[in-house]
Amino acid sequence: MTDIIRLTAAELADKLNAGELSSREATQAHLDRIAAVDGDVHAFLHINEGAIAAADAVDASRAAGEQLHPLAGVPLAIKDVLVTKDQPTTSGSKILEGYMSPYDATVVARARAAGLIALGKTNMDEFAMGSSTEHSAYGPTRNPWDLDRIPGGSGGGSAAAVAAFEAPLALGSDTGGSIRQPAHVTGTVGVKPTYGSVSRYGSIALASSLDQVGPVTRTVLDSGLLHDVIGGHDANDSTSLTDAWPSFAEAAREGARGDVLKGLKVGVIKELPDSGFQPGVAASFRASLALMEQQGAEIVEISTPHFEYGVAAYYLILPAEASSNLAKFDSVRFGMRVTPEGGATVEDVMSATREAGFGDEVKRRIILGTYALSAGYYDAYYGSAQKVRTLIQQDFDQAFSQVDVIATPTAPTTAFKLGERIGDPLQMYLNDLTTIPANLAGVPGISIPSGLAEDDGLPVGIQFLAPAREDARLYRVGAALETALVDSWGAPLLTRAPQLAGGKN
Q1: Do the Cβ atoms of 141 and 42 come closer than 8 Å?
Q2: At what angle do helices 310-325 and 360-373 cross, to 10 degrees?
Q3: Residue 468: strand, helix, or coil
Q4: Nearest to 264, CA basis, from 410, 405, 474, 450
Q5: How far is it, in rounded angstroms, from Cα 263 to Cα 406?
Q6: Given 22, 23, 79, 240, the catalytic residue
Q7: What averages of pLDDT result for each successive group of 10 residues across the chain (505 residues)?
Q8: In a domain, 394, yes or no
Q9: Tens of pLDDT along 10-63?
Q10: Domain of 170, in residue numbers
Q11: Residues near 5 by Cβ (< 8 Å), separated by ≥ 6?
């Protein structure tokens, strides 16, 4: 492993701006890393053939003395749910195999404008439906810590790319934990921003009221740097907030160097007992809370009585919105088309195309969502789920009147083995137990590595939640705990990752 790919995005940026490293060298090092290990990891679905040319353009601009963005020349991986005009966008589905978008998603366009170098598109559960990246039509991604285990989902490709040192930065999307849960199981940092603070324009919709684009990185500062690039109002997104946002990178720097934890009130949910979590996950969570207490934080027990209904409400709201959003994949406008032999009506072609193009999990959720929205069942199911959503939002309002942030384990277990839960959808859905409420309420969340589970040696994450629009608070708190944890470990967590298969460390 070269020193270049071990550098954080912030460190790479410093070397690029100081002239100690060229963007071509940084980009080539990561492309070489992908070539060396991605046959085992399968984090990427597509590699950008124009990456080196883009890097050369940044180097030329820098050599000419142009004023560039601080991250100009730093490589970036992009979840395949985000459309790109120069690479295929499949959303992990056969129905979009080979699809080329005529435009870039807003977050991709902003990244390009800042001079970041797109390395390629990362693997994901089909249409972001899954918690393990086993539902990709193109095969599963594997966890760099243990290639027999899942990297989380739906954004396992982005998290695995960062954890395997194939990319220093990645973009993901989070509908119920698809950034944070992969961060938990891969030892990376994942941020779900406040709903509406980062544009969803050009992000293939799963559930429009829940989806949010965000950063996947190895440090809190790197997440802040990328968040600063992609965030802000977008007139193309009708749900985009018009707020003026502070620098999240600066918030992370404040957390790392300041006394942020002193006097901080950290809420711990009494309805989430240790018995519901893998012992190693619960122990790591308690250890992180103890460390925060040592730094002056106050741990406060709070009640969120409706959180326990979050999973049930989510798995009615999400399928209902998904069944509507995925109706556009009808064989007529774009994507694959399957025509039955002997001629057929439009309805026959549509049915055959959707049968061949969608995987089992997508079909399951479309059927569930269509049923929940059907006449006679709308009020009983979808309407009731929306009422639960309101109660969860009220729980958050009550909790944040008592505490500054809420802390939970990011997920109930460490990375489980590939195939272990693929036949048990309920167990798969319960993996999002602690992450779903943030999406239902629209509040921001961050997962940072909190150590290795004592029972299996795999990464564990701690999640912090803050009130809507208080993303900067999460960066300060996350960076403060990250600093304290790294001081106690002596090095970042990812430096302790085991070798990949074949000795490719």
Answers
A1: yes
A2: 100
A3: coil
A4: 405
A5: 14
A6: 79
A7: 86 97 98 96 98 98 97 98 97 96 98 98 97 97 96 97 97 98 97 98 97 98 98 98 97 95 97 87 96 97 95 95 94 87 84 92 94 89 96 98 98 96 82 95 97 94 98 98 88 68 51
A8: no
A9: 999 999 999 999 999 999 999 999 999 999 999 999 999 999 999 999 999 999
A10: 3-270+400-498
A11: 29, 30, 33, 165, 166, 168
Q: Which of 136, 154, 203, 331 is catalytic?
A: 154
Look at the block and give the residue holding tokens 């729980």: 395
C-alpha 459, offset from chain centre: 16
The backbone torsions φ and ψ at residue 408, rounded to the nearest 5 degrees and listed phi first, read -145, 160
Determine if residue 140 is left, alpha or beta; phi over 0 gives left, psi from -120 to 50 gives alpha, anything else beta: beta
Residues 149 and 191 in one domain: yes
Tell me the C-alpha to C-alpha distance, in Å, between residue 92 and each of 44, 81, 128, 179, 183.
11, 8, 8, 16, 19
In percent, how much of the chain has pLDDT > 70? 97
Domain count for the chain: 2
Q: Which of 178, 197, 203, 240 is catalytic?
A: 178
**Does some domain include residue 302?**
no
Is 79 catalytic? The answer is yes
Per the annotation, the verdict on 154 as an active-site residue is: yes
Q: Name which of 264, 201, 262 is nearest 236 in CA terms.
A: 201
List strand residue ranges (DSSP E) for 239-327, in order.
265-269, 298-302
Look-up: residue for tokens 């199911």? 381
Asked whether residue 372 falls in the same domain as residue 490, the answer is: no
> What predicted TM-score, i.e. pTM, was given to this entire model?
0.96
Rounded to whole angstroms, the Cα distance separating 96 from 98 reads 6
Largest CA distance in the chain: 74
β-sheet with 298-302: strand ranges across: 44-47, 117-122, 75-79, 169-173, 213-217, 189-192, 445-452, 459-465, 405-409, 265-269, 298-302
In our burial notation (b when 16+ CB lie closer than 10 A, e otherwise), range 305-342 reads ebbebbbebbbbbbbbbbbbbbeebbbeeebbebeeee
Residues 369 and 424 in one domain: no
Q: 51: which residues sit within 8 A by CB, 6+ positions away? A: 27, 31, 75, 117, 118, 119, 120
The span from the CA of 479 to the CA of 129, in Å, is 30
